[in-house]
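# step 3/5: fold
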Amino acid sequence: MLAIVAPGQGAQTPGFLTPWLERDSFRSTVAHLSQAASLDLAQLGTRADAETIRDTAVAQPLLVAAGLATADELLAGTGPLDPEVVVSGHSVGEITAAALTGVVSAEDAMAFVSERGRGMAAASALRPTSMTAVVGGDPAEVLAAIEAHGLTAANNNGSGQVVAAGTVEQLSALAADPPARARLFPLSVAGAFHTVHMEPAQAALRALADAMTTHDPRARLLSNRDGAEIGSGAEVVARLVSQVTNPVRWDLCLATMRDLGVTGLLELAPAGTLTGIAKRNLKGVELFNLNTPDQLDDAREFLARHVTTTPTQHENGTN
């Protein structure tokens, strides 16, 4: 069984779209998504520096566009997305997953993520907040330490990695008093995502979501909230709205993949973060990082090896 996953904020690096934009089809897709996002995504993915694409209002649309455009290139050579494929995204990548499975159109996904990025950036500006990865240590002790310092376990990424989020003062206190046998790594993000600090971003997102047309997923779409497979498009979108203040339980998404019998996991560009987590948590599952267009043939062979049913003739949700 195949899983396709989309990374979250922090995966972007300067110039990561450069090789892809040599393809006419990719360039056309990015131009279309740029119009929907009111951003020059080609410029941002090729010539912008690290600080520019670190901006939440830029990073989030850029990542969703990259995932949708690379998925289009991948599936152009294989046919429609198989309904038995497991699809999920980490944090903002969940919007990519929703569009990939046909829950929302690519245009609506870009409008939604643009509003999300702007709203979360504005919320982040209200008070200095950030996030720190806590690697290792006893899981119960790590969670207790995070709670003791008034922080939120905003991401639980599986074995050995929890991301704490809150004010910079709270994170500094955690750094000065870390859990035993744990290492702390401050993340290059501009706010305490998936916490109460993001509440100001929700109202506009909810209004936008209410105006969007939704469809039920055309593949097995897993939710960050609890790892559950969601069959209702309306529920998927409602969860996307609440996700900005809810913790990301990627550990539970991984557990569902394991229970479903996933044998291969492909991460859309910019890939590496989620396959790195899967390597520690999904032992024996074959992994593929799709980062450059010269990998497309190998990626399609990877899909063919792990897809367990004959594709049906529905349309790819990213078109």
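# step 4/5: annotate
Confidence is low (pLDDT under 50) at residues 309-319.
# step 5/5: archive (pending)
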